[in-house]
Specification:
about 725 residues; Dihydrodipicolinate Reductase, domain 2; globular; 3 domains; Rossmann fold; 25 strands
Length: about 725
């Protein structure tokens, strides 16, 4: 295995600029003897943005461009289905690879990569960061000391929520095949099992619950997996998409037991004593309680030290990532055995294969998009058509027989309604994105109207400006060039200032937005900037612009924890933006879709250059909405009123602590944004009602029964395996 010269640093590139890349880049910047050289992503703009944020000198759009940069090791951070191809290309170029879990999607592919790395004399490691979780590392140390004797049995509970599942993003890789969820989520516990009991010998799976996400797309959400490894038996309870998070690992030995709470980062154990049963039972509880208290104090102390600038980040996930990455690079430079090499990756994949060997069903293949052809007369182009509101818009267009075009990023998990419309010739499907000018031109040429429903949010203003503001402006300019006769932009009431001190008793339809956008959240600021850019195009170039501003949009597919109701500090505890005693501008998603379609099809131009609000008046406050959700779900949902002044004082207190701790990136909390979130001022919706004839659902009881109850619908159907 080739290593860098001892006098030089390890030259590192990161391949894949997605969410996990930020963790790798932050950790690599502080890793001894490592030099960050490049960020690589097929989306060059993403690579450039990531490189700027982390002060990496090079950003490239292909692996081939890494070769001239003398890279020693590349961190492979692309989706799992790309691990094999990307890692193989790196190894063939003589570049070592450190691959995010899982190494590949089969033991055979993992063996292929291992053999290629050995043949080329380059390093191949896997990021099994769960092995370096602080509580698990503590458990290993106590096992190795002989505290509980030899390991006999390991019991794992992995009960986790899935944000993508809640959001209805069924195109995510983990949902494309029924087995994928195990390969996405379970390399963590399986890597820990490899440490504890070695390779898999026999494994049996029992299914406790499954659901059909879309016709033919099965998702298995609750599992019991049990069997034997080389050095002990195992049992796992797995729940994907759970409402309550629980992640624990218990080891039963010949002389005691140890339990690691991986979610809370606690560790406690029990061993035999010489005392009588009554005193032994007392000591067991007393000692366990003491261990948990010490562990809890340590977690709190680490957080406070970080906040005050007195210590490094120590949260369990970050600490595990840091431990894994630094252990790999230290071993690589020393020529020592890697903490997780290709063979370890194969062992973990063998557990994944054994757990899923019973699965025979396959997800529907990605739709073969038919040639789009030319636009039909009166055609509407929908951007963001697979989103929450977009799906309802498409359903209405299908119902009314209107020809339309949808721009889709990928062909996986497209709504059946959309595929059926394409097969009938009512819909054109064009693969592309807001950043892809050629596909957008193909979609827009000959169209009568463009409906821009895509959101384009992001974690930084730079990302929001590029994705939301610049992306929408570019689409609007292309619409002008293509002669589109109407441009409908779905904005939000977040573009307005709705604090009680706004100077008005109600907000009428108007092009005006919050005059102080810098004091607002990134999302609101982005919508404000986008509206202003489009209005400028309307005034200077005649863009036939119509802006719609929906209120708090609810319906089937909305998470119970909607931020329009308050700040959900837990999934069943909502802290109000204020006292929560003012009627909210709630609106049913189907009514929003109806108004958008009516605006797109409206015969006259009287809406051009105007913005209209879309809010119903069911008369429900935040307190009442949460109470209604509690009633229809039977769950313990709680609303906690809190004055705006108290909330702001608490936020300022947090800010002061961060500043004292030397946090230069700590932004002063915006009281203006907090006040606007209270939604204290009623909104008029005269344009939608008078021009479009819009009649939203507003009767209170009907709204609760049809809208709030729909938010709780669970499509799960039991399936015994």
């Amino acid at each position: 295995m080739r290593r860098p010269q001892s006098s030089s640093k390890t030259r590192v590139a990161v391949v894949g600029a997605g969410f996990i890349a930020d963790f790798h880049l932050e950790i690599l910047r502080g890793t001894p003897d490592v030099e960050l050289v490049a960020v690589c992503d097929a989306d060059l703009v993403k690579a450039q943005s990531s490189a700027r944020r982390h002060k990496v000198p090079h950003a490239v759009g292909s692996i081939a461009q890494l070769a001239p940069l003398s890279i020693d090791v590349a961190h492979v951070l692309v989706p799992p289905n790309l691990h094999l191809a990307v890692t193989r290309e790196l190894l063939e170029l003589g570049i070592g690879a450190f691959v995010e879990k899982p190494l590949a999607l089969s033991t055979a592919d993992a063996a292929t990569l291992r053999e290629l790395a050995e043949a080329r004399g380059v390093v191949l490691g896997v990021n099994h960061n769960a092995v370096f979780h602080p509580a698990f590392q503590g458990l290993l140390q106590r096992l190795r000391s002989g505290e509980i004797g030899h390991v006999e049995h390991v019991r794992v509970c992995l009960s986790v929520p899935l944000r993508q599942l809640d959001a209805g993003d069924f195109s995510h890789w983990m949902f494309r095949e029924p087995r994928n969820i195990i390969f996405e989520q379970c390399p963590h516990p399986f890597a820990q099992l490899v440490e504890l009991v070695g390779g898999v010998r026999v494994l049996h799976t029992t299914m406790l619950g499954s659901r059909e996400l879309q016709p033919g797309q099965m998702f298995h959400e609750r599992w019991v997996v049990a069997g034997r490894g080389e050095r002990g038996s195992v049992e796992l309870y797995l729940h994907f998409g759970a409402a309550f998070t629980r992640s624990t690992l218990e080891v039963f030995g010949s002389d005691g037991s140890l339990e690691a709470d991986l979610f809370h980062n606690h560790l406690a154990g029990e061993t035999k004593t010489l005392y009588l049963d009554f005193w032994n039972s007392f000591l067991a509880g007393w000692r366990r309680g003491g261990e948990l208290r010490r562990s809890a104090r340590a977690v709190l102390a680490d957080y406070l030290k970080l906040t005050l600038g007195l210590g490094a980040r120590q949260d369990a996930f970050f600490a595990g990532m840091r431990g894994s990455i630094r252990a790999f690079h230290a071993a690589y430079r020393a020529g020592a055995p890697l903490p997780a090499d290709g063979r370890t990756g194969e062992q973990v994949l063998a557990w994944c294969e054994a757990a899923t060997s019973w699965i025979t069903e396959k997800a529907p293949p990605a739709a073969a998009l038919p040639p789009a052809g030319a636009a039909r007369p009166g055609e509407i182009v929908v951007l963001g058509g697979t989103g929450f509101i977009g799906k309802r818009v498409l359903a209405l267009l299908v119902e009314r027989g209107v020809p339309f075009t949808v721009v889709v990023r990928r062909a996986h998990a497209l709504p059946p309604l959309l595929l059926e419309a394409a097969q009938r010739g009512q819909a054109r499907l064009v693969r592309g994105s807001l950043e892809d000018a050629s596909s957008l031109r193909e979609a827009l040429t000959g169209a009568a109207c463009v409906m821009q429903l895509a959101t384009g949010n992001g974690p930084t203003w730079e990302v929001v400006q590029r994705a939301m503001v610049d992306g929408t402006r570019a689409v609007a300019e292309l619409a002008l060039e293509c002669g589109v006769r109407r441009f409908v932009f779905a904005s939000t009431i977040a573009a307005l200032y709705l604090g009680a001190d706004c100077g008005s008793s109600e907000i009428a339809d108007s092009l005006d937005t919050d005059p102080q956008p810098d004091g607002r959240s990134l999302y609101a600021r982005g919508k404000i900037a986008t509206e202003r850019a489009l209005v400028e195009l309307h005034r200077t170039k005649g863009l036939p612009l119509v802006i719609a501003r929906p209120g708090v949009v609810l319906g089937r597919g909305t998470a119970l924890q909607h931020s329009g109701l308050g700040l959900w500090v837990r999934d069943n505890h909502c802290v109000g933006w204020g006292l929560g005693d003012k009627p909210l501008p709630l609106v049913w998603v189907d009514d929003v879709a109806s108004a958008l379609v009516s605006a797109a099809l409206h015969k006259s131009d009287e809406l051009h250059g105007k913005a209209f609000n879309l809010c119903a008046k069911p008369g429900l406050t935040a307190q009442q909405a949460v109470a209604a959700l509690r009633e229809v779900t039977g769950r313990g949902l709680h609303f906690h009123p809190r004055s705006l002044l108290l909330s702001q004082s608490m936020e300022v207190g947090k800010w002061l602590v961060k500043k004292v701790g030397g946090r230069k990136d700590a932004a002063f909390p915006s009281y203006r944004d907090l006040k606007s979130r209270e939604l204290a001022v009623p909104l008029r919706c005269d344009l939608a009602r008078s021009v479009l004839g819009w009649k939203p659902l507003e009767e209170r009881q009907a709204f609760v029964e049809r809208v709030l109850a729909a938010m709780t619908i669970d499509d799960t159907t039991p399936n015994v395996g």
